[in-house]
Amino acid sequence: MRWLVGWSSTAAGAAEIGSAGATGYDGETLHPVGSQLLWGDPDPLWAVGDWRPDEVRLVTADAQTRIAVLGTCGATDEELRLGLFTARGGALRHLTAWPGSYTAVVQVGRRITVCGDLAGARPVFHTPWAGGTAYATAALPLADLIEANLDFGHLAALLAAPDVPAALHDSTPYDGVRRIPPGHALILRAGAREVAGYDPVASLAVAAPPADPDRALDAVRDALVDAVRARLAAPRHVPGADIDPGPVPGMGPAERRAARGMPVPGIGADLSGGPASGTLALLAAGLPGMPGTVLGHGTGAGERLLAVTFNDLAVGGREAELERAGVLAANPRFHHVVVAGGEETLPYATLDGPLTDEPGPSLVTAVRHRARLASGSADHLTGYGARQVLDAHPARLADLLMDRQRRHLVRPVAALAKADGSVLVPARVYAAARRLARMPYGSGLESLAERLLQKRFEEPGGAVGASLAALTWAGPGPAARWLTGEALAEVSIRLQGATHRSGLGPGQRPGDFRARAALARTAADVRVLEQAAEIRFQRLHAPFLDNQVVRACRALPEALRVKPGARAAILRTVLQGAGITDLPPGWGAPSHVPAAAAARAGLRVAVDSLMALFDTPLLAEAGLVEARVVRKALRAAAQGEPLPLDGLADLVSLELWLRRLLARRGTCWTGTPARARAVPAGITPRRGALASGG
């Protein structure tokens, strides 16, 4: 893991805190473990972890005016300097408009500004500390700093309503540690904190302005090309070149690298046969320059781009996608590697792994991704987030009604009717969209709170059922049906409190609001996946989650999004605009084998270990579930009963995360006694109240 951490102290506290850190319990100097100091007193900032030299950039105008940019940023030093001068006046948006994925921190006197991203893949956290405010791009270091206990209300909301921002609000799994929302920045002035938005959202007051589809598609193409170019422009890295133990009889450099579990030098990409990863791989291979592996290292493929395809031998059905990936990889600028995975790479196959900053469903599939990424490059492009930024959330049908564009409902509704085979589908979908368009935000939250209290979770099946269930302001999560009544009541109370806190609502159309929430949840899970499946010296890149790509995709017209097959059509147009037209037949066709097949197969194989995991679960000790109920659901799902597998993944991943958190030793800080870490007392059973609020 890599993160930033620092604090802003009050004037009185600044006199007591030195440039090297604060004072611990026994008078020791307090600073993060494994850190490098970017700037010192009175408001220090550290970079913690294995940052590469080119990932840490610091531009200084004077002793009290400077900017730190950490991550992959396509801005030049001169652009950073101009951005710093502009930020002195309080402007923020331009700090988030450079290509790449990064975190920018600006210090102007005693004012510190930390910018989060639009998707939520690079979050910012904060907590009161020592009379001021400590902040970080990871929650666990702050939890260690204040010895935070678990926020059981947040954990309950994470299971009962993970896609509802009002239920989670700004809380984290750690009590007292807060998160700023995507699209916002944390502004600190001598310890006082403020959270400010820097990106406008669509207003409910007026109709959405008409957008030119051609210009919008050109903007998406330019943003994606710039995002890929920012990665290609970064220095090439040879992992572990300085720690190679030297020749081993019978082993070449590539074999020694593989034995150490290190990635191939240079840049590569996923090539699953789907449109998202294929688009990024083709753009990376087609841009001018030499995009791939470093000559003389690894595969010996010169400057060809390393394309990695995962072939699931345990669950078939993706033969067409594999064939399309092979056709694409015939490009002479690709070096194609196919990674075969058997039962050992199924979901739930391995229940141990590293501790991540937060829980996420990716914990149960980390071994699957790690098997693929182990054959990848030091810088590896992935297509995560493409579905969320390009596809139309079903609730966007209500947006079309609000903008009086009923004619654009014809094609998506006709596709649903064809899939369901019922002539009643158009009337049902139109009625649900019309109801949502007329429903206030507060009423949607109250309706969900009522459903949780009454334990009404049954939804109609199929594509039509999923679309109808999504045509609401807020819906229950797939794991909600297995929570205790007390946990559901806690989440219901949080939702009812949100109706008073939010006032008139989010100020957005329901479809746009739901799409942003879905993107935030996906970005958070990608962050968990990056930590859980981490390969030493490797960097995962998700260009679809970059700020400029997200902005360009949000400008796409609703009418373009809701067409069946819109994502593949948009990406095909992007490739054509970049001069890439030779695509295999069927490119972009949806897979007919859902990911649920692999999840169900993994449940069947790992059912015994899952039964042991939930013999005495920490979730039951916390009052969130009953162990007997979860064991029954796991056994039934393994036998093929139609249960929501996503909900079981949420339960298992949260239980795994709790066990790893409580099993850890040590802390993120030096100068503190052993007790100064998160959840020092473990899980104490809660009766009558699950959390302190949040």
From TrEMBL:
<dbReference type="GO" id="GO:0004066">
    <property type="term" value="F:asparagine synthase (glutamine-hydrolyzing) activity"/>
</dbReference>
<dbReference type="InterPro" id="IPR029055">
    <property type="entry name" value="Ntn_hydrolases_N"/>
</dbReference>
<protein>
    <submittedName>
        <fullName>Asparagine synthase</fullName>
    </submittedName>
</protein>
<dbReference type="InterPro" id="IPR001962">
    <property type="entry name" value="Asn_synthase"/>
</dbReference>
<dbReference type="GO" id="GO:0006529">
    <property type="term" value="P:asparagine biosynthetic process"/>
</dbReference>
<dbReference type="Pfam" id="PF00733">
    <property type="entry name" value="Asn_synthase"/>
</dbReference>
<feature type="domain" description="Asparagine synthetase">
    <location>
        <begin position="267"/>
        <end position="659"/>
    </location>
</feature>
